[in-house]
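Q: Could you predict the 3D structure of Molybdopterin-guanine dinucleotide biosynthesis protein B?
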Amino acid sequence: MDTVKVLQVVGFKNSGKTTVILNLLRLANDKGKKVSTVKHHGHGGALDMPSAATDSMRFFEEGTNSSVVYGGGVVQVLQRKEEAMLDELIGLASMEDPDLILVEGFKRDDYEKIVLLRSAEDWIELQELNHIVLVITPKQMKLDNLPVVLHNDLKQLNSWFTNWMDGDSNEGV
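A: Sure. Here are the predicted structure tokens for Molybdopterin-guanine dinucleotide biosynthesis protein B:
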């Protein structure tokens, strides 16, 4: 496997992370890139599971550590893991040899990241994150040595992302 580029999109709840990821995913697909995604489920509680009537869920409920199902061109993996580290999840997302992996959340991890702000107050805590390569804000802000894009400026965001995708980054795995 060649080096895969990883870009995190981080911010507090309701800052627009999923919307940005979807936009970047569409742009990468339009450019012919193969993309995987990883998301931190930060809403508390367990994920929604497939119907209990499926064989894979019956296996899972009986205690298997991992249940893998294939059908119709889709692989579904259910896995028990008390604690999952981002690097492990990136490893899973890398199995199909993507050109890049977009990560939603995991803000304390060590990959290049876009930080989304809902207000200037968010910057007080989020400026401490490492590997920030872009900040998206609701209003124009001047930040030392960091590019800033306004939430509604898709043209500028898309231009930045295209340059990032095509550039030579050392933030791969």
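Q: Anything worth pointing out?
A: The chain has five helices and eight strands.
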